[in-house]
Amino acid sequence: MKIRVISLLLVLCMIGSVLISCSDAGTPEGESTPANQPANPTAGTSDEPSEDELSALEQRQRIPDDLPDVTFDGRSYTIETETRKVYEILSEELNGESCNDAVYNRNLTIEKRFDVKIGVIENETPYNEIVTSVTAGMHDYDVAGFINYLTLTPVSARVLYNWLDIPRVDLDKPWHNKLANDDAMINDRLYAINSDLSISTLLYTYGMFFNYNIMEQYGYTSSALYDIVFEGKWTIDRLTEISAGIWEDKNGNGKHDEDDIHGYGVINGQINTHDVWLAALDISPLLVIRAQDDYDVNIFTDRTVTALEKVNYLYHNSEGTFFGGSDWRGIPKMFAEGKLAMSQLYFGETTESLGDMQDTYGILPLPKLDEEQPGYYTNCWDQFTVFAVPKTMPEADAEFVGIIYEVLCAETYKTVFPAYYDVALKSRYSAEPATAQMIDLIMAGRKLDFTFQYGSKLQNLPYQFRVMVVNDDSNIASWYKKSQKSLNKNIEKFLKLFYEED
User: Fold this and answer.
1) How confident is the model at residue 502, as a pLDDT?
2) Residue 261 pLDDT grade (very low, low, confident, very high; cuts 50, 70, 90)
3) Once rounded to an integer, what is the mean pLDDT over residues 177-201?
4) Which residues make beta-bridge pairs with 19?
5) How many Cβ atoms from other residues are within 10 Å of residue 446's Cβ?
6) What are φ and ψ of residue 196, in 5° steps?
7) SS3 for 406?
8) How many CB atoms lie within 10 A of CB 56?
9) Which residue, among 131, 150, 141, has the nearest Cα to 192 in the 3D structure?
10) Which CATH number do you get for residue 294?
11) Cα(275)–Cα(482) distance, rounded to whole angstroms?
12) What is the dihedral of CA 429, 431, 437, 438, to 10 degrees?
């Protein structure tokens, strides 16, 4: 176990430009301001710009966090997190890379404002460690971050504090994911919270990436695609229609393979890539709970049947689809090589598989089931971080824990996320408003179904859709008939965690 702490002595280094473009040019995007001061220095004067005149970044910075003017006498605020996710909490030094520097400056701003020291404890398995720590009566850190789908472990052990009992955490603020947290709140208990402090929720969010060059060859400009989205007409049928007409048999063997150019590509394997359709086609939440003995399982519906039929057609019957490969990295690689016109990829691929991509690409939301669907939705690769408070936290610390957690989320939303947006968009967040609007639209529609946190406890309910689309199976009625009795028993056992005391 390793401890690293940012010292308040570094405050003298701040505040430089937070949002520097992640391109080699390194041009400043804007400058950070202390979180308790307005982003616009002329606020309150007759020259103050209207909201419409403010940039997207300035509008973010104008949102107040409504936290009190208090200080904590240099007290340490410690977050335990998975070793590979330290970047969400801590940056050791400025290095000229905008995402790193945004985290660094965020922490300095907070440390100066509240007179605290932000520190990290690294752990390979924090979802297990918090169980061990609380069971032993220890309180070594204020907040723990762990992988979303492993939430079941500490919740089952009953070692987490209810976030609704933590003051100063305003779940209605835009830096908290309301779509995710509202559904995860059972019997007024929220044990694992989703917020923008989890930078991985941005990196692991799925969008429908498209290749400008291929799409333009087939008559679809980026502006035309954006217009389809803005008009509310970007549906799975439209995706299928457009992609079906794109297949170039490059090796002339008459078979769909990795050497060809396809309109759409997806892996043939039981992985999370397919889970995105639950959110995109508005099937989620799979489980609606009103009381311990009053709940609905939403997977066996006409909408699910329709969604399965449409996704199965896209995967298995559309002439323009490449459905194959056993390596989950294969599809991003094909997209980067200019062999796919469209595919659902998570944003982190922009600096992974797509880092050296020669063709220009854009990002659209996942399509809707039909034009009547109220919005565009998506989800994340289930490796993203959620945060929890150990049950051993003294009640007297609740205000301190809440204030610093809230400001970490707020400042990440205001300064760190825009820096990462620039990475995802290759510095087009401000230069191309339509593309920036796509990212904002996608992020606003993140429906992170809470059943993924408890999959094994719920008879793998959230994974059934992926199983069926990979197997070209739309007969959800057959599965539900066989599973209903045992599924209900598992749900009833699960709900005891929220309705019954230890």
Assistant:
1) 64
2) very high
3) 95
4) 30
5) 22
6) -75, -10
7) helix
8) 16
9) 150
10) 3.40.190.10
11) 22
12) -70
CA 20/CA 120 separation, integer angstroms: 25
Structural domain harbouring 423: 2-38+54-202+385-431
Residue 180 is encoded by which pair of tokens? Answer: 């995710």
pLDDT tens-place string over residues 111-149: 999 999 999 999 999 999 999 999 999 999 999 999 999
Is residue 175 one of the residues assigned to a domain? yes
Which of these, 316, 314, 368, lies nearest to 342 by C-alpha position?
Answer: 314
Token pair recorded at residue 460: 């793998």
* 152-186 residue pLDDT tens: 999 999 999 999 999 999 999 999 999 899 999 99
Same domain, 418 and 488: no
Q: Which residues contact 485 (CB under 8 A, 6 or more apart)?
A: none
Is residue 388 a contact partner of residue 146, using CB atoms and an 8 Å limit? Answer: yes
- As a whole number of angstroms, the distance between CA 498 and CA 338 comes to 49
d(CA 50, CA 57): 14
Residue 390 lies in a domain: yes
Return the half-sphere exposure (C-beta side, CA atoms, 13 A cut-off) of residue 39: 22
How far is residue 82's CA from residue 187's CA, in Å, rounded to a whole number?
29
Q: How far apart are the first and last CA of the chain?
A: 30
Co-location of 76 and 120 in the same domain = yes
Q: Please give the tally of structural domains in the chain.
A: 2
> In sequence order, what are the beta bridge partners of 364?
208
Exposure string over 207-220, b if 16+ CB within 10 A, otherwise e: bbbbbbebbeeeeb
Do 93 and 159 have their domain in common? yes
* Angle at the Cα of 457 from the Cα atoms of 190 and 138, rounded to 5 degrees: 55
What is the SS3 assignment for 440? Answer: helix
Start-end of H helices in 254-360: 276-280, 302-316, 330-336
Helix boundaries (H) for 50-167: 56-62, 98-114, 126-135, 152-156
